[in-house]
Amino acid sequence: MCVRKGKTQLHKWAERQVILCGTCLIVASVKDSLTGKMHILPLVGGKVEEVKRRQHCLMFSSAGSQAQTYFVNFDTLADFQRWHRQASKVVSQTVSMVDLSCYSLEAVPEYLFYSQDITHLNLRHNFMSLQGPGGLLNLPRFSQLKSLNLSHNRLGVFPECVCEILTLTELNLSCNNLHTVPVQIGNLQSLQTLSLDGNHLSSLPEELGGLSQLNCLGLSFNNFSHIPAVLERLSAVDKLAMAGNRVESLELCTLARMSHLKNIDLRLNGLRWVKSESLEAVSQVTQLDLRDNCLDSLDLSSICNLETLQCQRNQLGTLTLSGFTLRMLHASSNRLTTVNIYPVPNQLTHMELSQNLLEYLPDWVCDCRKIEMLDVTHNLLSELPSRLLNSLSLRKLLAGNNRLQRVPDLLDHVPLEALDLQHNKLTELPESLFYKALNLKYLNVSANTLESIPPSSQSEESLSTLQELYLTGNSLNENCGALLVGHQNLRVLHIAYNQLLSFPASKLSKLELLEELNLSGNKLKTIPSTVSSCKRLHTLIAHSNHINVFPEILSLPEIKLVDLSCNELTEIQLPDSLPATLQELDLTGNSSLMLEHKTLNLFSHITTLKLDQKSTTTAGDSLSASTPWNHGYSEMSGQRNKLCVSVLTVDRFGDGVEACYGIFDGDRNEEVPRLLQCTMGDVLCEELQHSSIDSVYMCNTFLTSHRKLGMAGQKLGASALLCYIHHEPSDPGGHLSLTVANVGTCQAVLCRDGRPVALSKVYSLENCTEEMERVKVSKAIITEDNKVSGVTCCSRLLGCSYLSPWVLPKPWVHTEPLCSQDEFLILGNRALFERVSYQEAVCTVQAVRDPRAAAKKLCSLAQSYGCKDNIGAVVVSLHIGEDSCTCEPPVSTAEPRGPPPAPVPVSVTPGPADPATLSSSSGGVSEFNSETSASEVGSEAGSTASDEHQSSGPTSRPERRCRTHPGLFQRQPSCATFSSNQSDNGLDSDDEAPLEGVISNGSKLEVEVDIHCCAFQLRSGAPESPKDLDLEKRGSDYPNGKMRRQNSVVVSATNGCLLAVCGREITDLKKSPSTSSLFGKKLSNGSVVAPEDSHNLIEVALEAPKKKSGYFTAPAQQDPEDQLIVPPSLEQEVREQLRGQSPLVSGPSAPSTAPILKDPVWDHPHPPAFASSLVPGPGPAPILQQEVYDTAL
């Protein structure tokens, strides 16, 4: 449309694009384009008029003394009328509230000063200055302003100009590094709310006492050492908000003089004494908050009208209160042995006394007439009073983690709705429990020694309303199944880790409303077919049993999660179609399970599918292939609809005998844990090249990972824990050490001689006084739920950059030497260790031993103990000798004699100096997408599994095997364990465009693989021939012994198979962070290479973009499917072709010498041994075609 600026010369027009956006008219400065400079005309308070002298023309004018005018001519009458109608509405608007927070402004936009109707102005989180046209000195120009928010602007001084805005009723100057308040504050006689939190104030002017209408004054997180005397004159203020100051003593007589104060908040003050020097009663205070102080005794009997007291996390040994009006008492996490309240608090409804030293409950507790909730968990109680349990008001009783041996009988019907008695010494429950407590909906008696449960009723007809029943960790047998029938409203049943041999089929069919069933850790051989009657069942967890028949649960319409791991399944009978609701199926740990291609195809839509692949190692290989450790992990989403916990497990890290394990907990977000899971191991590998000091490389790893989170880490964060097992740099062949670094609440525990040794530090405000003090000194606002700015309870996280400097990414670093008494290592997130103590976790793993089953048991126990959040656990079993060496006696093997190979693991990944290096994981399962490649992967698994015992040959000389000092074979599964679902928000991958031959449907298939790294007898050390010498000399011209040559071939053992790559392209592959993720590793977005699309992994990698952008340039982890199998029919031809090529060093190089691949390896004197580890046995047709070799060679 045509536009003209100004009021004269109507014949001078220019064609421009014009937009009516919100309350502004935007005019482009370039023809037919919105690029370049934009002219913005604010219309609020202005005018829009029709130009009579020109057809279809409107005049737009802004308000104020410097008003501007634009004339806009329209082509049609319809456009003219529509614009006129809309613009007229805009100019007639009155803007009363303006929010300009978080815009990095240094001045107020000047046109706002012409809007005289503004009453609320929010300038929070900016960089406002005093001077300038839009500086704070001009704020008095807002004549109607009532509310002004200038918090978080780093002002440094109190802006006295705001004291001239006499209309203000609300003023927020929090977090501005203010040291004084000017006397001019007394001018604001209309002020009702004044927020001065998070500054450096230590005193207030007397003029403040003249503000008669002030009813809310925020002084939290300043430097006050006493309650300001000026508060005595502020009669309208009813709340004293002074949390986070330096008030060490409180005189109750001071509060008595301030008769208008009803609510006192003195938490986080370092308060040591509360004194009452006179007998004067403090009658006006009704709510008192003394949490997180240093009180060892508290006598508040003079506060006669106290209704609510919060004194958690002190060191209270005694507590004395007045009970006249007391309604709520919160005194958990102290050292209380008794609580004295007089008279009996007949108004008391809620009382929390958990985590104290109570051996008995005071008598007055049973006399409370209105008590509804009582929490006495984690005490030393040996009995519960009968009068308490028979109370006619008690609805929720939490008495877990005590020493109770019996529960008193119920004498009459009681209103009890929730009863928690877990972790006691109960052998039986009251016979009348269920038919006397008809309102009981929640019962948790896990971790006791129950052998039976009471009946649901005295007759056949049951009136039970029980919905959640937790019986985990008892001694129940199959007879309890008949007693569960009466609870027909049951929705959640956990009966794991008992002595069940079976579950009555007829009884299970009666539980039609069942939604969640956990039968793990029993001795079940089958799950009754009547489980199909539970139409609402969405979760079935039955791992660690002896189940050999797949249950009929895939026909249930709402089934979401099925966990049948660690059982004895042999086959699966499936319906023609699976329910669309099925999201996770775990079949790992079933050693005899064989899956057909049809079955795998049916499973292709499942988001998370976990399977095992059969090991191809022989009996002789297993001794030398193992490392001094193996791991298992488990993750459970609980009642969340997403999994925000991720784990990293790398049993073979770097070139030597090293390992890396990690766990990441995003609390409410899943993006950051997955990003850390994909890259943190690679970052550590790179940092190890620059420093050997534990505090240096670990801190740099965390800081670099924090930086690489990019935009995702601005407002999102995660707790992170990283464990690195290694030899000391000064003694590479000596003792092993464990270096642990963590931020947040993820924790690591080492079992040494059967006792737990904590290796991490919990960085939460409630658990770490040093961090609490640091955050207070930096003037953060800690809300009443102990969260920094109401966001997180952690003072150190990866991410959450906008909370700096309060929340930092700097980790705690600790190195612990390992010894033969170290049995295993446990990694877990906050949810796990909140429910399972260190000692119980150690005892649990000791009883199970298998790391995977132990990790699953830890998570199942935490769920049965009441955890509703995401749970993650990693268990690492350690086998450390006296000198950190696990040498074993000589054993006879079927391997041929020959020179010993180099003690360096061989893989297709780059050497240790390459930042893209991340060695493979050992043991465990790995997850990846499985839409169209599921059947092919199953074909490979089936074709290689039958080749387990084919290696045979002349008996060789017995050799000494050592896990720390590798022998002829080394076990190196093909990928590090990536456990969580991959995010679909684009943050997980630095590939913006989809790659050819790559599937990305969000599904995953887990496969466990073994790699025989020395299948080709790679050697290092002094060359044995002039040809070898020449090759080594040429190889030394390149860093780390890597060689780049034209038309040469790299040969490596990957899962016992041959991988041939054009030599001129391999270096480019390794150098590019983008393509290195494809080079023998799993894509960070969870996708895999489909065999039917491209059999040559390297060809696919070469087609990937080699850009170094995106959130992460570090490589992801390698995929179990990334392998090439040499068919028997092509083996001889491949050998002949390879003889004609120049050999090339491959795999990671040792610091001093590089492993040399020699042509004579193909003419090994005992070819059967080579063939057995390279060529698959009978099975489905091989997937590698002839033309693939032609292309690669």
UniProtKB/TrEMBL annotation:
This is PH domain leucine-rich repeat-containing protein phosphatase 2. It is a peripheral membrane protein. CDD domains: PP2Cc. It comes from the Eukaryota. Residues 927-955, 971-986, 1139-1152 have a biased composition (Polar residues). Residues 630-878 form the PPM-type phosphatase domain. GO terms for molecular function: metal ion binding; protein serine/threonine phosphatase activity. Keywords: Cytoplasm, Hydrolase, Leucine-rich repeat, Manganese, Membrane, Metal-binding, Nucleus, Phosphoprotein, Protein phosphatase, Repeat. InterPro entries: Leu-rich_rpt, Leu-rich_rpt_typical-subtyp, LRR_dom_sf, LRR_R13L4/SHOC2-like, PPM-type-like_dom_sf, PPM-type_phosphatase-like_dom, SLRP. It is found in: Cytoplasm; Membrane; Nucleus. It comes from Lates calcarifer. The keyword Translocase does not apply.
